[in-house]
Amino acid sequence: MSTPELPIRVDTRERGKIIQRLEGMEGVQLSFEEMDVGDYILPDGLAVERKSGTDFILSVVDKSIWDKVAKLKSQYDRVVYIIEGDVYTARFHQKALDVHQAFAHLLVRQGVSVLPSPDPENSAMLVYLLGLAGHPEGPAPERQAKPTKRREALLHVLAALPNVDEERAKALLKHFKSARGVFNAGVEELQAVEGIDEPTAQRIVDVLEFSR
Q1: Dihedrals φ, ψ of 80, to 5°?
Q2: What's domain 150-207's superfamily in CATH?
Q3: What long-range pairs does 7-13 form, CB within 8 A, spacing at least 24?
Q4: Residues 151-165 pLDDT 10s
Q5: Quick check: 138 pLDDT over 70?
Q6: How many CB atoms within 10 Å of residue 134?
Q7: Domain 6-134 in CATH 3.40.50.10130
Q8: Which residues fall within 8 angstroms of residue 42, CB to CB, at 6 or more apart?
């Protein structure tokens, strides 16, 4: 499946490495305009505000962040903050608690997500992936399939036993032929299986006895 075209509206004040990185990404189409609020406007009504760690802390300390958030939410369906760099080193006499409270209020009260980023290049990747996620033709993340074959399903169950990894699960199934055989086995019977020592066998029996 080819990458869909991804139109991104960008505030004219955004420049440097993040723009260079975005311009080199497949399907990205940047259009620049002066914006009152928001730095990147993505498909499906998603606004991204990008701030350095220092600027974010300053906006928390002087409380200007809440007016900005109110404006963003009045114009766009969804809002994401990307914050570059450290936000915990004291700059304006703030404490870690101030940062935690701001994050909690943004998420719970305002419905605004906060994504950390170490640098502009990683911020560009976040903007790109956010855009693809909201694009109607964008790829959906792959989900790990549940085991469908009987043997795979049995191994999946056995590997959930204490101290039993995939290799031990295979050895148990080979020896007992079924999960029921494993569940009905005693300590000595389990010890007969390669890779199962006495502590592991005892732990398996204890767990299965407890669940009966």
Answers
A1: -130, 135
A2: 5' to 3' exonuclease, C-terminal subdomain (1.10.150.20)
A3: 7/31, 7/43, 8/40, 8/41, 8/42, 8/127, 8/131, 9/33, 9/35, 9/40, 9/41, 10/39, 10/40, 10/41, 11/35, 11/38, 11/39, 11/40, 13/39
A4: 777 787 788 888 888
A5: no
A6: 16
A7: yes
A8: 6, 8, 48, 127, 130, 131, 134
